[in-house]
Amino acid sequence: MTTTRQPISLYGFLRPRPERADEVRRILTDLVEPSRKEEGNLEYHLHEHEDGRFFLYEVWRSQEDLDRHNQYPPLRAFLDNLSDYLEGPPEAYVNTMVSPYPARHDE
Question: Has residue 16 been placed in a domain?
Fold first, then answer.
């Protein structure tokens, strides 16, 4: 069964400064479970690429849910200081999903 919602997806790469890679890994890993429990979260995945970059893939029910997530204090602290943690700006994309998102059994 599918729904007619058009969720918002956020995805991209983050390249940590080499001396902060372990710290960035911890921060990002610590965000996974709390983010998955937030209202409106449909998917939240963190991957570590073999070249040291981290890849995030998130899907939110709506832009409002994503906006609320971006105010989560631990995430906000990281986002407000990205240049301290990363070698450059994130390669990030935010888009409305074109394909229907399947309804979850717990909804």
Answer: yes
61 neighbors 5 (Cβ within 8 angstroms): yes
Token pair, residue 59, equals 């899907």
Residue with tokens 């970059």: 53
Q: Is residue 1 in a domain?
A: no
DSSP structural state of residue 107: -
Grouped pLDDT means (10 residues each) for the chain, 107 residues = 67 98 98 97 96 96 94 96 96 85 60
Domain that residue 72 falls in? 8-96
- CA-to-CA separations, 68 to 25, 27, 47, 61, 96, in angstroms, rounded: 23, 19, 23, 11, 17
Task: Identify the pLDDT of residue 5.
Answer: 56
Report the C-alpha gap between 87 and 37 in whole angstroms.
Answer: 30
